[in-house]
Amino acid sequence: MVQIVGFNLRTQKEGKKENYITLLIEGDVELVQSSNTGRFYATVRRCVISSTFDEETAERMVGKQMPGTIERVPCQAYDYTVPETGEVVSLGYRWDYKPEGGRRISTPKVKNIDLSQQPSEMTAEEGTALQQLSAEEVTQ
To answer: By CB distance 3.0 to 4.6 Å, which of 1, 16, 19, 47 could disulfide with 12?
Structure first.
């Protein structure tokens, strides 16, 4: 389980005037062994996720728990300044929220299909994609 512990109002980088809300979430307490001293210390994993909430809704969400975990995910290396020491370190990972059961919603990859072709001229893959698109239109 993770818990929403706060939120922030952010401004888009592209200079757009629209603001959005991010939620700060934390995982459960875990014990980690120091590689320097060998002693254990308690820590929590934290990450930030975007939301479509307004400030009032985000404020009501603080304290709510959600099923899932916060996991370490590899990414392109970046520099991070440790707030306590001012030391700059290079990191190649970030922390991401993973819903329980590993469910991630993704947009299906859509292949461009030339609809001017007759079905007999289409490849099997294009025909299958066209059938899937037609089925989605019916269900909407």
So the answer is: 16
